[in-house]
């Protein structure tokens, strides 16, 4: 009598399902990473070692043309301090991220730093990593 098992278990492993899952994950992360929107202007920041903190209350940007922005809204230089006071009034620990484009005169940067100093705001100078 020849008894052979009809249901042999194959020791081989099929990678087809694993590659499908990896491919779907890759597509998912590629699509979701393009939806991330940074709340900042496209400025050419100066290079420096270190990194900028992610948390912020208000972002002040200065372009080469000496146009001031609070977040993405253009403001006049003389209106900068009252608008910052209004925005940061309710904040417990107010923080300003200063994004000064490469080539902006130091006087303009010091102007914003002086506003932060007078009002006891923490100021972080944003830079481009080296």
Explain the overall architecture.
The chain has 130 residues and is α/β, with parallel strands linked by helices. It has a domain at 47-129: 2-Layer Sandwich (Nucleotidyltransferase, domain 5). Helices cover 31% and strands 19% of the residues. The chain has three helices and seven strands, in the order αββββαβαββ. A five-stranded mixed sheet has the order 4-3-2-5-6, with helices on one face. The radius of gyration is 27 Å and the shape is rod-shaped.
Secondary structure elements and their pairing?
Layout lengths: L15 H18 L13 E2 L9 E5 L5 E3 L2 E3 L4 H9 L6 E6 L5 H13 L3 E4 L2 E2 L1
Parallel strand pairs: 1-7, 2-5, 5-6
Antiparallel strand pairs: 2-3, 3-4
Mind telling me the CATH class of the domain at 47-129? Alpha Beta
Q: Kindly estimate the percentage of residues that lie in beta strands according to DSSP.
A: 15-25%
The topology string of helices and strands comes to: HEEEEHEHEE
Number of strands: 7
Structural class: alpha/beta
- The side-by-side strand order for the widest beta sheet comes to 4-3-2-5-6
What is the overall shape? rod-shaped
**CATH level-two architecture of the domain at 47-129:** 2-Layer Sandwich
CATH topology label of the domain at 47-129: Nucleotidyltransferase, domain 5
Q: Radius of gyration over alpha carbons?
A: 27 Å
Helix-residue proportion: 25-40%
Mean pLDDT: 80
Runs with pLDDT <50, length 5+?
A: none
Intertermini distance = 78 Å
- Count of helical stretches: 3
Give the biggest sheet: 5 strands, mixed
């Amino acid at each position: 009598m020849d008894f052979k098992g009809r249901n042999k278990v194959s020791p081989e492993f099929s990678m087809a399902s694993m590659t499908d899952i990896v491919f779907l994950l890759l597509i998912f992360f590629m699509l979701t990473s393009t939806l991330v929107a940074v709340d900042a202007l496209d400025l050419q920041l100066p290079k420096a070692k270190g990194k900028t903190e992610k948390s912020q209350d208000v972002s002040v940007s200065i372009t080469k043309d000496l146009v001031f922005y609070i977040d993405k809204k253009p403001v006049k230089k003389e209106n900068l301090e009252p608008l910052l006071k209004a925005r940061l009034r309710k904040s417990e620990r107010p923080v300003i991220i200063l994004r000064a484009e490469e080539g902006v005169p130091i006087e303009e940067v010091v102007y914003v730093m002086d506003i932060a100093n007078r009002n006891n705001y923490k100021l972080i100078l944003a830079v481009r990593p080296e």
